[in-house]
Structure formats: C-alpha cells, structure tokens
Known about the structure:
This protein is mainly α and 93 residues long. The chain has helices spanning 2-13, 18-49, 53-92. α1 packs antiparallel against α2 and α2 runs antiparallel to α3. The relative contact order is 0.15.
Amino acid sequence: xxxxxxxxxxxxxEEADSEVKDAGLISAAQRVEHYEIAGxxxxxxxxxxxxxxxxxxxxQTTLGEEAxxxxxxxxxxxxxxxxxxxxxxxxxx
Length: 93
C-alpha cells in the first residue's frame, strides 16, 4: 500500500498539464481503492467462514462503499478528466 500511495504522491511532482495530472491522480486513487476492495473482500470471506455474520456484514458494507467510490472515480474519469487529458496530450504531439 505504501508503494501505491507513493506512486500517487509522485503525480504532484510531475511536470504536466493539470488535466494530465488529474487523470494520473484518479488512476492512483483507483489503485488504492482496488487494493482496499481486495482486502475487505478477503476479510469478509474469512469472517463468513468463521461464522462471524456481524463482522462479515460490516465488512460487506465497507466493501460496498469502496466499490461505490471506485465507480464514481471511473465515471469522473470517463466523463471528463481522461477526455481532457487525451486532448491535451494529443495536441502536444
């Protein structure tokens, strides 16, 4: 996780247009979300196996929140940020 966060932090230091940086930051945020989704999903499954239905439900709630955040980031990236970044990079070539 530290490596994923460090990669995201590097985006702040990059020499790039704001649109390109925004696309990179969304990508970094999604990598964090995917890491968290994997962790919460695994923990939820273990809780189910151990018969901890309350813990499994709490983990499922958190897993749903993480998935929702990932979906929002995807929608934001597809609707504007990545499009603007692509336009910016293609105009520089």
